[in-house]
Amino acid sequence: SSLGLSALTSDQLNTLIAQAKVKCQGGQLPTYIPLLAQANPGWVAIQVQRIKGEGVAAGDIRCSFPLMSVIKPFVLLFLLEQLGTEAVFSQVGMEPSDQPFNSLAQLQADRGKPRNPMINSGAIALAGRLPGKDGASRCESLRQWLNQRSHSQLVLDEAMLQSVRSLPNERNQAIANLLATVGYLDCPEIALDTYNHVCCLSGTVTDLANLGMLLGQDSSMISPQHRRTVNDILITCGLYQASSRFATEVGLPTKSGVSGAMLSIVPSQGAIACYSPALDETGNSQVGLFIVQQLAQDFNLSSTPHP
Ligand code: GLN
Protein backbone atom coordinates (compact mmCIF):
# COMPACT_ATOMS: atom_id res chain seq x y z
CA SER A 1 0.00 0.00 0.00
CA SER A 2 1.09 3.61 -0.34
CA LEU A 3 -0.96 5.25 2.37
CA GLY A 4 1.29 8.03 3.59
CA LEU A 5 0.62 10.55 6.34
CA SER A 6 -2.49 11.96 4.66
CA ALA A 7 -4.52 8.91 5.73
CA LEU A 8 -3.81 9.44 9.45
CA THR A 9 -6.60 10.35 11.90
CA SER A 10 -6.52 11.42 15.54
CA ASP A 11 -8.49 8.29 16.51
CA GLN A 12 -5.64 6.22 15.15
CA LEU A 13 -3.16 8.27 17.20
CA ASN A 14 -5.25 7.70 20.33
CA THR A 15 -5.25 3.95 19.67
CA LEU A 16 -1.49 4.03 19.21
CA ILE A 17 -1.01 5.89 22.49
CA ALA A 18 -3.09 3.28 24.31
CA GLN A 19 -0.99 0.49 22.75
CA ALA A 20 2.24 2.29 23.62
CA LYS A 21 1.23 2.60 27.26
CA VAL A 22 0.75 -1.18 27.50
CA LYS A 23 3.86 -2.04 25.52
CA CYS A 24 6.42 0.42 26.92
CA GLN A 25 7.14 -0.07 30.60
CA GLY A 26 10.15 0.28 32.84
CA GLY A 27 11.60 3.41 31.25
CA GLN A 28 13.65 5.80 33.36
CA LEU A 29 13.69 9.55 33.91
CA PRO A 30 17.11 11.21 33.88
CA THR A 31 18.29 12.38 37.31
CA TYR A 32 21.24 14.58 36.35
CA ILE A 33 18.87 17.44 35.52
CA PRO A 34 16.64 17.59 38.64
CA LEU A 35 13.64 19.23 36.93
CA LEU A 36 13.53 16.51 34.26
CA ALA A 37 13.26 13.93 37.05
CA GLN A 38 10.02 15.61 38.13
CA ALA A 39 8.24 14.94 34.84
CA ASN A 40 5.32 12.50 34.83
CA PRO A 41 6.62 9.35 33.11
CA GLY A 42 3.07 8.63 31.96
CA TRP A 43 2.74 11.71 29.77
CA VAL A 44 2.39 11.05 26.05
CA ALA A 45 1.76 13.70 23.41
CA ILE A 46 1.89 13.44 19.62
CA GLN A 47 1.47 16.04 16.92
CA VAL A 48 1.72 15.25 13.23
CA GLN A 49 2.07 18.13 10.80
CA ARG A 50 1.40 17.49 7.12
CA ILE A 51 2.17 19.32 3.92
CA LYS A 52 -1.13 18.07 2.53
CA GLY A 53 -3.86 18.30 5.11
CA GLU A 54 -4.39 19.57 8.61
CA GLY A 55 -2.32 18.72 11.65
CA VAL A 56 -3.36 15.71 13.74
CA ALA A 57 -2.73 15.54 17.49
CA ALA A 58 -3.46 13.30 20.46
CA GLY A 59 -2.58 12.90 24.13
CA ASP A 60 -1.20 15.45 26.61
CA ILE A 61 -0.60 18.06 23.95
CA ARG A 62 -0.61 21.00 26.38
CA CYS A 63 2.62 19.77 28.01
CA SER A 64 5.58 22.04 27.44
CA PHE A 65 9.08 20.55 27.57
CA PRO A 66 12.69 21.51 26.82
CA LEU A 67 13.90 20.25 23.45
CA MET A 68 17.29 19.22 24.87
CA SER A 69 19.15 17.34 22.12
CA VAL A 70 16.31 17.78 19.64
CA ILE A 71 17.67 21.31 19.15
CA LYS A 72 20.92 19.88 17.72
CA PRO A 73 19.70 19.45 14.11
CA PHE A 74 18.47 23.05 14.19
CA VAL A 75 21.78 24.39 15.44
CA LEU A 76 23.31 22.53 12.49
CA LEU A 77 20.73 23.89 10.04
CA PHE A 78 21.21 27.46 11.28
CA LEU A 79 25.00 27.25 10.96
CA LEU A 80 24.84 25.63 7.52
CA GLU A 81 22.74 28.58 6.42
CA GLN A 82 24.99 31.14 8.11
CA LEU A 83 28.44 29.71 7.39
CA GLY A 84 28.04 27.15 4.61
CA THR A 85 28.77 23.44 4.46
CA GLU A 86 32.55 23.63 4.30
CA ALA A 87 33.01 25.89 7.30
CA VAL A 88 30.69 23.76 9.41
CA PHE A 89 32.25 20.42 8.53
CA SER A 90 35.74 21.70 9.16
CA GLN A 91 34.67 21.83 12.83
CA VAL A 92 32.70 18.64 13.17
CA GLY A 93 32.49 15.27 11.39
CA MET A 94 29.53 13.46 9.86
CA GLU A 95 30.35 9.93 10.98
CA PRO A 96 27.99 7.86 13.11
CA SER A 97 29.00 6.97 16.64
CA ASP A 98 28.43 3.76 18.57
CA GLN A 99 29.15 5.45 21.90
CA PRO A 100 26.82 7.20 24.38
CA PHE A 101 25.77 10.78 23.53
CA ASN A 102 28.18 12.32 26.03
CA SER A 103 31.20 10.09 25.38
CA LEU A 104 34.55 11.66 26.22
CA ALA A 105 36.57 8.52 25.44
CA GLN A 106 35.51 8.63 21.81
CA LEU A 107 36.41 12.30 21.47
CA GLN A 108 39.82 11.52 22.93
CA ALA A 109 40.28 8.57 20.56
CA ASP A 110 39.34 10.86 17.65
CA ARG A 111 41.97 13.39 18.84
CA GLY A 112 39.36 15.96 19.79
CA LYS A 113 37.40 16.12 16.53
CA PRO A 114 33.70 15.50 17.22
CA ARG A 115 32.20 12.62 15.25
CA ASN A 116 28.99 14.38 14.33
CA PRO A 117 26.75 17.33 15.30
CA MET A 118 24.10 15.13 17.00
CA ILE A 119 26.20 14.09 20.00
CA ASN A 120 27.29 16.44 22.78
CA SER A 121 30.86 16.99 21.55
CA GLY A 122 29.68 18.05 18.09
CA ALA A 123 26.84 20.18 19.39
CA ILE A 124 29.09 21.95 21.93
CA ALA A 125 31.63 22.63 19.17
CA LEU A 126 28.88 24.12 17.00
CA ALA A 127 27.45 26.11 19.91
CA GLY A 128 30.85 27.78 19.97
CA ARG A 129 30.22 28.97 16.41
CA LEU A 130 26.84 30.60 16.97
CA PRO A 131 26.98 34.38 16.51
CA GLY A 132 26.64 36.53 19.64
CA LYS A 133 28.61 37.57 22.68
CA ASP A 134 27.30 35.15 25.29
CA GLY A 135 25.08 32.12 25.79
CA ALA A 136 21.90 34.14 26.29
CA SER A 137 22.29 36.30 23.18
CA ARG A 138 23.39 33.38 20.98
CA CYS A 139 20.40 31.34 22.11
CA GLU A 140 18.11 34.29 21.49
CA SER A 141 19.38 34.69 17.90
CA LEU A 142 18.77 31.02 17.21
CA ARG A 143 15.33 31.17 18.84
CA GLN A 144 14.25 34.13 16.74
CA TRP A 145 15.66 32.68 13.56
CA LEU A 146 13.72 29.44 14.08
CA ASN A 147 10.46 31.09 15.16
CA GLN A 148 10.56 33.46 12.18
CA ARG A 149 10.94 30.61 9.72
CA SER A 150 8.48 28.16 11.21
CA HIS A 151 5.15 28.41 12.99
CA SER A 152 6.82 27.45 16.26
CA GLN A 153 6.87 29.67 19.33
CA LEU A 154 9.87 28.39 21.20
CA VAL A 155 10.69 30.03 24.53
CA LEU A 156 13.70 29.75 26.80
CA ASP A 157 12.76 27.82 29.96
CA GLU A 158 14.77 29.72 32.59
CA ALA A 159 13.84 27.35 35.42
CA MET A 160 15.12 24.41 33.35
CA LEU A 161 18.34 26.29 32.62
CA GLN A 162 18.86 26.84 36.35
CA SER A 163 18.22 23.17 36.94
CA VAL A 164 20.77 22.19 34.26
CA ARG A 165 23.31 24.47 35.96
CA SER A 166 22.46 23.26 39.49
CA LEU A 167 24.57 20.09 39.22
CA PRO A 168 28.02 20.36 37.65
CA ASN A 169 28.10 18.48 34.34
CA GLU A 170 31.71 17.34 34.52
CA ARG A 171 31.43 15.31 31.34
CA ASN A 172 30.27 18.22 29.19
CA GLN A 173 32.93 20.42 30.81
CA ALA A 174 35.64 17.92 29.98
CA ILE A 175 34.35 17.69 26.40
CA ALA A 176 34.42 21.50 26.03
CA ASN A 177 37.91 21.71 27.53
CA LEU A 178 39.27 19.07 25.17
CA LEU A 179 37.66 20.86 22.20
CA ALA A 180 39.41 24.06 23.29
CA THR A 181 42.75 22.30 23.76
CA VAL A 182 42.75 20.98 20.21
CA GLY A 183 41.55 24.27 18.76
CA TYR A 184 37.91 23.55 17.90
CA LEU A 185 36.71 26.08 20.49
CA ASP A 186 37.96 29.53 21.44
CA CYS A 187 36.10 29.83 24.70
CA PRO A 188 34.82 26.60 26.29
CA GLU A 189 32.82 28.45 28.97
CA ILE A 190 30.74 30.42 26.46
CA ALA A 191 30.28 27.39 24.20
CA LEU A 192 29.02 25.28 27.08
CA ASP A 193 26.77 28.04 28.36
CA THR A 194 25.36 28.47 24.84
CA TYR A 195 24.81 24.72 24.56
CA ASN A 196 22.97 24.67 27.91
CA HIS A 197 20.79 27.58 26.82
CA VAL A 198 19.77 26.08 23.48
CA CYS A 199 18.97 22.72 25.13
CA CYS A 200 16.43 24.63 27.27
CA LEU A 201 14.51 26.09 24.35
CA SER A 202 11.04 24.76 25.02
CA GLY A 203 7.61 24.33 23.53
CA THR A 204 4.78 21.88 23.00
CA VAL A 205 4.60 19.02 20.50
CA THR A 206 2.82 21.46 18.20
CA ASP A 207 5.82 23.79 18.31
CA LEU A 208 8.15 20.85 17.74
CA ALA A 209 6.16 19.53 14.77
CA ASN A 210 6.08 23.03 13.27
CA LEU A 211 9.83 23.24 13.70
CA GLY A 212 10.11 19.86 12.00
CA MET A 213 8.42 21.27 8.92
CA LEU A 214 11.61 23.29 8.32
CA LEU A 215 13.22 19.93 7.55
CA GLY A 216 10.17 18.16 6.11
CA GLN A 217 9.18 20.48 3.28
CA ASP A 218 10.64 22.69 0.60
CA SER A 219 10.63 26.37 1.36
CA SER A 220 12.18 29.45 -0.09
CA MET A 221 13.74 30.22 3.29
CA ILE A 222 16.06 27.23 3.66
CA SER A 223 18.47 25.83 1.10
CA PRO A 224 17.21 22.38 -0.02
CA GLN A 225 20.79 21.17 0.08
CA HIS A 226 21.23 22.15 3.75
CA ARG A 227 17.92 20.60 4.64
CA ARG A 228 18.99 17.38 2.99
CA THR A 229 22.31 17.36 4.77
CA VAL A 230 20.60 17.67 8.16
CA ASN A 231 18.09 14.91 7.33
CA ASP A 232 20.84 12.60 6.08
CA ILE A 233 22.89 13.08 9.24
CA LEU A 234 19.79 12.43 11.33
CA ILE A 235 19.33 9.05 9.62
CA THR A 236 22.78 7.86 10.67
CA CYS A 237 23.32 9.81 13.92
CA GLY A 238 20.02 11.08 15.37
CA LEU A 239 19.37 8.36 17.94
CA TYR A 240 22.91 7.76 19.22
CA GLN A 241 23.75 4.01 19.35
CA ALA A 242 20.22 3.11 18.23
CA SER A 243 20.61 5.04 14.97
CA SER A 244 21.55 2.24 12.56
CA ARG A 245 18.95 -0.14 13.85
CA PHE A 246 16.23 2.50 13.60
CA ALA A 247 17.44 3.52 10.15
CA THR A 248 17.07 -0.07 8.99
CA GLU A 249 13.74 -0.76 10.66
CA VAL A 250 12.05 2.62 10.22
CA GLY A 251 14.17 4.78 7.95
CA LEU A 252 12.96 8.24 9.00
CA PRO A 253 15.36 11.03 9.99
CA THR A 254 14.76 11.25 13.75
CA LYS A 255 16.21 13.10 16.74
CA SER A 256 15.68 12.38 20.41
CA GLY A 257 16.37 14.40 23.55
CA VAL A 258 16.85 13.48 27.19
CA SER A 259 13.59 15.25 28.09
CA GLY A 260 11.70 12.55 26.17
CA ALA A 261 11.19 14.81 23.14
CA MET A 262 11.44 13.13 19.75
CA LEU A 263 11.07 14.49 16.22
CA SER A 264 10.80 12.43 13.04
CA ILE A 265 10.87 13.92 9.58
CA VAL A 266 8.82 12.38 6.78
CA PRO A 267 10.47 14.03 3.79
CA SER A 268 7.98 15.70 1.42
CA GLN A 269 5.08 14.68 3.68
CA GLY A 270 5.53 16.31 7.07
CA ALA A 271 6.85 15.85 10.58
CA ILE A 272 5.95 13.77 13.65
CA ALA A 273 6.64 15.22 17.10
CA CYS A 274 6.34 13.09 20.24
CA TYR A 275 6.85 13.79 23.89
CA SER A 276 6.99 11.06 26.50
CA PRO A 277 9.60 11.39 29.25
CA ALA A 278 10.45 7.75 30.08
CA LEU A 279 13.72 6.80 28.37
CA ASP A 280 15.34 3.53 27.34
CA GLU A 281 19.01 2.72 28.14
CA THR A 282 20.21 4.71 25.12
CA GLY A 283 18.42 7.84 26.29
CA ASN A 284 15.65 7.75 23.68
CA SER A 285 11.95 8.06 24.52
CA GLN A 286 10.51 4.54 24.73
CA VAL A 287 7.03 5.58 23.67
CA GLY A 288 8.38 7.92 21.00
CA LEU A 289 10.35 5.12 19.34
CA PHE A 290 7.37 2.77 19.49
CA ILE A 291 4.91 5.26 18.04
CA VAL A 292 7.07 6.35 15.12
CA GLN A 293 7.93 2.74 14.34
CA GLN A 294 4.22 1.86 14.29
CA LEU A 295 3.29 4.88 12.19
CA ALA A 296 6.02 4.12 9.67
CA GLN A 297 4.77 0.55 9.38
CA ASP A 298 1.03 1.29 9.30
CA PHE A 299 1.26 4.22 6.89
CA ASN A 300 4.16 3.03 4.79
CA LEU A 301 6.36 5.99 5.69
CA SER A 302 9.97 6.13 4.64
CA SER A 303 12.51 8.62 3.44
CA THR A 304 12.96 6.61 0.29
CA PRO A 305 10.06 6.62 -2.18
CA HIS A 306 7.92 3.49 -2.14
CA PRO A 307 6.21 2.07 -5.23
N1 GLN B 1 21.64 19.06 28.08
C1 GLN B 1 21.70 17.64 27.88
C2 GLN B 1 23.13 17.15 28.08
O1 GLN B 1 24.07 17.68 27.53
C3 GLN B 1 21.15 17.26 26.56
C4 GLN B 1 21.53 15.88 26.13
C5 GLN B 1 20.41 15.08 25.51
O2 GLN B 1 19.29 15.54 25.31
N2 GLN B 1 20.69 13.87 25.20
O3 GLN B 1 23.38 16.22 28.79
From TrEMBL:
Catalytic activity annotation: L-glutamine + H2O = L-glutamate + NH4(+)
Name the UniProt record assigns to this protein: Glutaminase
Report the record's Gene Ontology biological process terms: glutamate biosynthetic process; L-glutamine catabolic process
**Membrane-crossing residues?**
none
Which key words are in the record?
Answer: Acetylation, Hydrolase
* Gene for this chain: glsA
- Source organism of the structure: Coleofasciculus chthonoplastes PCC 7420
Q: Which family does the record claim for this protein?
A: Belongs to the glutaminase family.
Q: Which Pfam families match?
A: Glutaminase
Q: What is its EC number?
A: 3.5.1.2
Annotated GO molecular function terms are: glutaminase activity
How this chain assembles, per its entry, is: Homotetramer.
Kindly list the positions annotated as binding substrate.
69, 120, 172, 195, 240, 258
